[in-house]
């Protein structure tokens, strides 16, 4: 691309943090490739944007001619979605996301939600998104799914490069181990944890130099007080921010990098250390588990001071381990990408055609469509056919042409299953928040049957049932929805059905149980499976946009509410039973493994390595045909009973 580019950042570009260094390197690379790049630095408070920040970003974008190409760092745009939306149609905007703003350490749950929703709203308007790690790519997908917020741009991964450097020397005999920590002094970086861990390691075995600006004064004071209280002033030096030459010298003099972060979107200092042949002692927080390759360092769960202390002690006292890890770091040093390659990848990402305004879809749409396609045949095999037949009898007695509503319709699988079992003609209203999936659903009606089936779609959230189609429906249905909803939502649904004397048909509601089976179909007992299931169940109960989710308890909660309202309820147990070695089931089983592992990692990011080991072991066993999977589901049909009429009908009141 030959058009001029504008990069907008919060504050000055020459700041010595990983994100700003990445941005500056990309500017250098693009200019070397012949692009004219203007850098605009914004004043004001970020990411919690104040009035000055708002005015600065708005002015910067207003000054650009129509169709200008602009790259906006996520720190500068995430809290100002209204400014982005105002200019998104006339400008070609690329968002550069280092990590989601709501993943910063020390935020309250409400602040996290506010940042996530704000950033996703801003990202929904842009033409392109570039992230710096595959972890962040997956994290954005997970957030889009969790918050059910649409976006139209694909997410491109451009990992940082590294500057070639001479290898650092190994420690000599009886020489104290020189540890290096390069990180801004903010709670997410965990220097307080490092001081507490070092306090348990014999002081004459090590020295630790910490470089990084004090961006959080209160936190920096706390770290200094910890150093003093631990009597480690002679061992730990907090140097503050330094220039590049000083930092290169610090790498050259060190024997290992220590990065105790709770979370990183990539962790550039890890690859910088590897470029010097330095082993790394770090955590599994965020992308760090992937950034540090096995054999080049030691990883512990974020926040685990005892494990960090043990890792540092082992490194300081075990010469054989140090030599092994240094060899691993030196080997990895030969495979690192340089900044030139990273710049070329960044430029290539900028040449991709921008998303069309009319092509709005959830960033998870394609993933969701793939998942729904995978599960459809299995759903059809295991869900109840008897309950829809009972519903058909009730509908036949009620109307010659039933109207039906499918909640959370996705790509229309539930409608395709039910349509042949229910009376014709039929009119369906499919409700979902995802426009692209609804378009697929509408197009999926077979031509011969279309004369008897009419379909309309409604893109809407399910946080309200005040939709016209729901007021006149004879039967309300849904598939694989209940685990996402709260008790309040269930009560709202039951009240709605009672007030309109509607039947309710819910299929494939998860019961909160799953497990693995052997080649004979017998359950396997495994402690790691039980541990993973517990994490998954906890994740299920997060708020998915409809209140605190009930997860596997939702089916029974709905049954109780319906029976309490005088409905006649029939139930059927409909578990998936995916056989070991069944080639048709293997893609779905692998997708289940990935989904369970991803949910567990979101629930317990500190256990990412353990979860990854579980995922690899179970995925391998499935691929080799050694294990199958069962997943608990239940279906229900609820029909109005004599006692279920609305109060005004039963009493004759108006």
UniProtKB/TrEMBL annotation:
InterPro entries: Glyco_trans_1, SAM-dependent_MTases_sf. GO terms for biological process: carbohydrate derivative metabolic process. One of its GO terms (molecular function) is glycosyltransferase activity. Pfam families: Glycos_transf_1. Keywords: Transferase. Residues 174-328 form the Glycosyl transferase family domain. This is Glycosyltransferase involved in cell wall biosynthesis.
